[in-house]
Amino acid sequence: MADPTTPARRCHCVIAHPTTDAERAEIVDAITEARRINDSRGLLINLARLTGARTCPANARRP
Ligand SMILES: [Zn+2]
């Protein structure tokens, strides 16, 4: 059973896109950290999460 305090995931893409400004900020922080520790895999995954969000159904109405 899902935790009622956890909001439902709005993006169902394979690589989850952020759907709020707070989620975007978390990803930008993760990119900054990946660069700092030279984590190329983390950098790639988090860049993929940020890009392509315009084609995501959960972000269709965002400007
Ligand atoms: Zn998505």
Structure, explained:
The chain is mainly alpha-helical and about 60 residues long. It has two helices and no strands. The chain has a domain at about 20-60. About 45% of the residues lie in helices and about 0% in strands. It is globular. The N and C termini lie far apart (about 35 Å). The mean pLDDT is about 85. Zinc ion (ZN) binds near residues 13, 17, 56 and 58.
Concise structural overview:
The chain has 2 helices and no strands. It is mostly helical and 63 residues long. It has a domain at 21-59.
Mean pLDDT figure: 85
Main sheet characteristics: none
Separation of the first and last Cα atoms: 35 Å
Question: Helix/strand/pairing class, anyone?
Answer: mainly alpha
Shape: globular
Number of helices: 2
Distinct ligand kinds: zinc ion
Estimate percent helicity. 40-55%
Order of helices and strands: HH
Q: Count the E strands.
A: 0
Q: What Rg do the Cα atoms give?
A: 13 Å
Give me the secondary-structure topology:
Blueprint: H1 21-36, H2 40-50
Helix pairs in contact: 1-2
Key structural traits:
63 residues; mainly alpha; 2 helices
